[in-house]
Specification:
By secondary structure, the chain is an all-alpha fold. It contains five helices and no strands. The chain has a domain of 129 residues.
Length: 237
């Protein structure tokens, strides 16, 4: 194996190892995102696209070269010539085997290079989605807590209003009973006042009658005194 194909095979092995590591189930996407956020990757970011497309071009060229070699050693004419000479036949099959091997190595390297970039992109996207979903989940929990708190406050307020209405109703009932009692007392007081006024009027009439009787008796008394004084005056004369 020549140096270039040894490098391509080593690159293929590295790609397989990296993809297996990226696909480990116990390493979360958030952990990979934190790894991808290291300062060294930020420093390599301007060169990453250039390196990526350069490797694609190199692998495509190697893949096309290996494909050309496979077609070259798969033609029927060299095969017919090789059947005459067994050593040439074995050498031709060895060349075809190496060309096919190089074709597979370059093809899988190109395929896994694209797959690895896609896996890294998906891991970043999954990490972003997980972070946003965690934020949405926290916001949803806060909203649910706020809704429950508002519901409890509404229930408390409704209960307070019901209690206040019951207290107001009881107070109004008590005030109504007291008003009825006061109305009864007022009626009793009015009847007592009316009775007192009637008694006062009767006493006034009785007092006027007594006064008139007293005046009459007083006049009669004066008349009697005058009658008694007249015979005495006559005798003195």
């Amino acid at each position: 194996m020549t140096l270039q194909w040894t490098a391509v095979a080593f690159f293929l092995y590295v790609e397989i190892a990296l993809i297996l590591i990226l696909c480990l189930p116990f390493i979360s996407a958030l952990r990979w995102r934190s790894v991808f956020s290291w300062r060294i990757w930020n420093w390599l970011t301007p060169y990453w696209n250039k390196c990526f497309f350069t490797m694609i071009m190199v692998l495509v060229v190697l893949f096309l070269d290996a494909l050309r070699e496979v077609q070259k050693y798969s033609d029927p004419e060299p095969t017919l010539e090789a059947k005459v000479n067994p050593n040439l036949y074995d050498h031709l099959h060895m060349k075809l085997f190496r060309a096919q091997r190089n074709l597979y190595i370059s093809g899988f390297s190109l395929f896994l290079w694209l797959i690895m970039r896609r896996v890294v992109t998906l891991l970043n996207q999954v990490a972003v989605v997980v972070e946003s979903s965690a934020g949405v989940q926290a916001q949803l929990e806060n909203t649910i807590k706020a809704a429950r708190q508002h519901q409890e406050d509404n229930l408390t307020l409704k209960q307070a209003l019901l209690d206040e209405e019951e207290a107001t109703s009881a107070q109004n009932q008590q005030l109504k009973m007291e008003a009825e009692k006061l109305a009864g007392r007022l009626k009793a007081a009015e009847s007592a006042v009316s009775k007192s006024q009637t008694e006062v009027e009767a006493m006034k009439r009785q007092s006027r009658g007594l006064s008139q009787e007293y005046d009459r008796l007083l006049r009669e008394h004066h008349l009697l005194q005058n009658l008694q004084s007249d015979p005495a005056d006559k005798k003195d004369q």
